[in-house]
Protein backbone atom coordinates (compact mmCIF):
# COMPACT_ATOMS: atom_id res chain seq x y z
CA UNK A 1 0.00 0.00 0.00
CA UNK A 2 1.41 3.36 -0.90
CA UNK A 3 1.90 6.00 1.74
CA UNK A 4 -0.27 8.39 -0.26
CA UNK A 5 -3.23 6.02 -0.28
CA UNK A 6 -2.82 5.33 3.43
CA UNK A 7 -2.89 9.07 4.13
CA UNK A 8 -5.84 9.58 1.78
CA UNK A 9 -7.83 6.85 3.53
CA UNK A 10 -7.12 8.48 6.91
CA UNK A 11 -8.07 11.91 5.56
CA UNK A 12 -11.46 10.71 4.31
CA UNK A 13 -12.07 8.72 7.47
CA UNK A 14 -11.84 5.10 6.40
CA UNK A 15 -9.39 2.29 7.02
CA UNK A 16 -7.11 1.53 4.09
CA UNK A 17 -8.04 -1.58 2.14
CA UNK A 18 -6.77 -4.92 3.34
CA UNK A 19 -4.57 -7.06 1.13
CA UNK A 20 -7.64 -9.06 0.00
CA UNK A 21 -9.61 -5.88 -0.68
CA UNK A 22 -6.72 -4.52 -2.77
CA UNK A 23 -6.70 -7.78 -4.74
CA UNK A 24 -10.47 -7.52 -5.31
CA UNK A 25 -10.25 -3.84 -6.29
CA UNK A 26 -7.59 -4.63 -8.88
CA UNK A 27 -9.59 -7.60 -10.19
CA UNK A 28 -12.70 -5.43 -10.51
CA UNK A 29 -10.70 -2.71 -12.26
CA UNK A 30 -9.17 -5.28 -14.63
CA UNK A 31 -12.60 -6.67 -15.46
CA UNK A 32 -13.99 -3.21 -16.24
CA UNK A 33 -10.97 -2.16 -18.29
CA UNK A 34 -10.94 -5.34 -20.36
CA UNK A 35 -14.69 -5.51 -20.92
CA UNK A 36 -14.95 -1.87 -21.95
CA UNK A 37 -12.44 0.95 -22.04
CA UNK A 38 -9.63 1.75 -19.62
CA UNK A 39 -11.51 4.64 -18.05
CA UNK A 40 -14.20 2.19 -16.96
CA UNK A 41 -11.90 0.75 -14.27
CA UNK A 42 -12.03 3.64 -11.77
CA UNK A 43 -15.68 4.26 -12.57
CA UNK A 44 -16.59 0.62 -11.82
CA UNK A 45 -14.73 0.91 -8.52
CA UNK A 46 -16.60 4.13 -7.72
CA UNK A 47 -19.94 2.47 -8.56
CA UNK A 48 -19.07 -0.37 -6.20
CA UNK A 49 -18.23 2.09 -3.43
CA UNK A 50 -21.46 3.97 -4.02
CA UNK A 51 -23.53 0.81 -3.62
CA UNK A 52 -21.99 -0.07 -0.29
CA UNK A 53 -21.76 -3.70 -1.40
CA UNK A 54 -18.71 -5.66 -0.28
CA UNK A 55 -15.99 -5.79 -2.91
CA UNK A 56 -16.17 -9.57 -3.12
CA UNK A 57 -19.90 -9.37 -3.93
CA UNK A 58 -19.37 -6.72 -6.60
CA UNK A 59 -16.57 -8.75 -8.14
CA UNK A 60 -18.81 -11.83 -8.20
CA UNK A 61 -21.53 -9.82 -9.96
CA UNK A 62 -19.01 -8.43 -12.44
CA UNK A 63 -17.73 -11.91 -13.22
CA UNK A 64 -21.29 -12.99 -14.00
CA UNK A 65 -21.26 -10.38 -16.78
CA UNK A 66 -18.19 -11.82 -18.50
CA UNK A 67 -18.64 -13.16 -21.99
CA UNK A 68 -18.71 -16.97 -21.95
Describe the structure.
This protein has helices spanning 3-12, 19-35, 40-51, 55-64. By secondary structure, it is an all-alpha fold. The chain has one domain (3-64). Helix 2 crosses helix 3 (40-51) and helix 2 packs parallel to helix 4 (55-64). The chain is elongated, with a radius of gyration of 13 Å.
Compact description:
This protein has 68 residues and is mainly alpha-helical. The chain has helices at 3-12, 19-35, 40-51, 55-64. The longest helix has 17 residues, at 19-35.
Q: In one word, what is the shape?
A: elongated
Mean of residue pLDDT? Answer: 89
Helix content: over 70%
Oligomer: single chain
**DSSP strand content:** under 5%
The rounded distance between the terminal residues' Cα atoms is 33 Å
- The total of helices stands at 4
| Main sheet specs | none
Low-confidence stretches are: none
Radius of gyration: 13 Å
N-to-C order of helices and strands = HHHH
Whole-number total of structural domains: 1
- The total strand number stands at 0
Give the helix/strand class.
Answer: mainly alpha
Task: Please describe the topology of this protein.
Blueprint: H1 3-12, H2 19-35, H3 40-51, H4 55-64
Supply database-style keywords.
mainly alpha, 68 residues, 4 helices
Amino acid sequence: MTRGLTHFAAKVGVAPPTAQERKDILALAAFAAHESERFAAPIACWITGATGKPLAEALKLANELRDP
